[in-house]
Each structure stands twice: as C-alpha cells, then as structure tokens.
UniProtKB/TrEMBL annotation:
A single GO cellular-component term on record: cytosol
List of residues binding S-adenosyl-L-methionine: G109, L131, G132, D133, Y134, V135, L136
Annotated protein name in UniProt: tRNA (guanine-N(1)-)-methyltransferase
Ranges for domain tRNA methyltransferase TRMD/TRM10-type: 1-223
Job of this protein: Specifically methylates guanosine-37 in various tRNAs.
Species assigned in the record: Winogradskya consettensis
Keywords: Cytoplasm, Methyltransferase, S-adenosyl-L-methionine, Transferase, tRNA processing
InterPro entries: Alpha/beta_knot_MTases, tRNA_m1G_MeTrfase_C_sf, tRNA_m1G_MeTrfase_TrmD, tRNA_m1G_MTases_N, tRNA_MeTrfase_TRMD/TRM10
Subunit organization: Homodimer.
Family from the record: Belongs to the RNA methyltransferase TrmD family.
Domain of life: Bacteria
Keyword tRNA processing on entry: yes
Length: 237
C-alpha cells in the first residue's frame, strides 16, 4: 500500500519509523512518504493560512498549496482522507476499508480547518473522518492513529492473523479480559476456567464476558449487535 501524508509539521510523523509500522515500511509492505505542505507555497513567507471569510476567530488554510500538493502526489484513483472533528466517526470497519485501498493521501488540517473548496474540488474521492467528539490541534495525531489501525490489517504485518479476528470490534463486540502468569498475584487469581484446558468451556466463558462487557460498557454497540447472534458461539468450540 502507498501512503502520502501532507502536513505543515512533518516532524510529527517520526513515530511512524518505529515498531511494526517501521517494520512494514522496511519490508516494503507499506510505502509511506511525508510531505511538508509549505513545499507547495510560492511566496517568501511560505504562507499556508489566512483569515476566515465572514469573520470569526483563528485562521483557515488557503486552497492553493493543497491543490499543488494533490497535483504532485495524487491521482484520480487515490483516496483523500481528511481527519476533522466534522468527519464521520472512524471505526474498525473504516480501517478495514482504508486498508484495502492502493493509495491513500492524508491531508492534515491545522487552525480552523482547510478551505472547503479544497475538499469540494479534490481530483479524487474524499473521506472526512473524526476520531471522536473532541477537538485536537490538527490532523497529525489523528493520522498516526488511523495509520496504526490500517497497518495492522495489511496482510503480512501481524504474525498471527487470528489476533485480528478475536480482538475487540472485529465482530462488533468488546474483547473478554485477558490474563497471564502468575496464576495468583497480589491475592487475585486468574479465573479457574482459563486454566481448565477445556477449550469449549473457555470459548463459552470468553463469549459471555465479551457480551457482558459490551452490554455494560458500550450499550450502543450491544444494541447494534444482531440479537440472533447472542447466545451462539461464532466458531466451533
Ligand atoms: N482534527 C481535530 N480534531 C479532530 C478529531 N476529533 N478527529 C480527527 N481529526 C481532528
């Protein structure tokens, strides 16, 4: 997969050299480039913003550098992803959809946002996505989050693909609690069932915990879960 990130703070993206994203880049599974939007300015001050039409606080990103940046890095078959508090809430399903794309371009807005005409006239499809109902300084951290969610879904990135099917949000539910050694720690014991060796019983326990957690912590997800699936194990135990 190819990814181009455009930002006025390219240094924000140094974490993308680390850990499994860094490894995916090293092995060629992920071809990622970060660009400084100011490369595509043409004045001596390398201006990227101006005051908003209609008045109001803050500054808005001017359209010209963005248009020049898209001409340089994008094609009509790219997908433009713009993190923004006015975007559609980003979900695991969105991560999977983005992971299936060949080329993503991320546009990181700052200040009060990007001139709307940039999105309205972009020479490729556009997706505005929000990480949640709060406001960040800009899109940079959101892109790092989205890149983590996407990269771990790319074939070959995770050693054990089972971890993708058994994790929270893969089936619309939260994952059951997990434990490791020691079996007894600080007066607290690992649930007996997990030490029983009975895989059927363990699968049923995990399923119950998963339903219970989802119902109590995320009633919105529980409501959306197909009722006919409750009480059934999704896979043979
Ligand atoms: N940029 C600023 N706030 C944001 C949010 N909540 N989600 C995505 N991008 C943002």
């Amino acid at each position: 997969m190819r990814v181009d990130i455009i930002s006025i703070f390219p240094d924000y993206f140094s974490p993308l050299d680390l850990s499994l994203i860094g490894k995916a880049r090293g092995t060629g599974l992920l071809d990622l480039s970060v660009h400084d939007l100011r490369t595509w300015t043409s004045d001596v001050h390398r201006t990227v913003d101006d005051s908003p039409y209609g008045g109001g606080p803050g500054m808005v990103m001017r359209p010209e550098p963005w248009a020049a940046a898209f001409s340089a890095v994008a094609s009509p078959s790219s997908l433009l992803v713009v993190p923004s508090p006015v975007g559609k809430p980003f979900t695991q399903a969105d991560a999977a959809a983005l992971a299936a794309q060949e080329h993503l371009v991320f546009a990181c807005g700052r200040y009060e946002g990007i001139d709307q005409r940039v999105l309205d006239s972009a020479p490729m499809p556009v997706r505005e996505v929000s990480l949640g109902d709060y406001v960040l300084f800009g899109g940079e951290v959101a892109v790092i989050v989205i890149m983590e969610a996407i990269t771990r879904l790319l074939p070959g990135v995770l050693g054990n693909a089972d971890s993708l099917t058994e994790e929270s949000h893969s089936d619309g539910l939260l994952e059951a609690p997990v434990y490791t050694k020691p079996a007894s720690w600080d007066g607290l014991d690992v649930p007996e069932v997990l030490r029983s060796g009975d895989h059927g019983k363990i699968a049923r326990w995990r399923r119950e915990q998963s339903l219970l957690r989802t119902a109590t912590r995320r009633p919105d997800l529980f409501e959306a879960y197909p009722p006919e699936k409750i009480g059934k194990l999704d896979r043979a135990a």
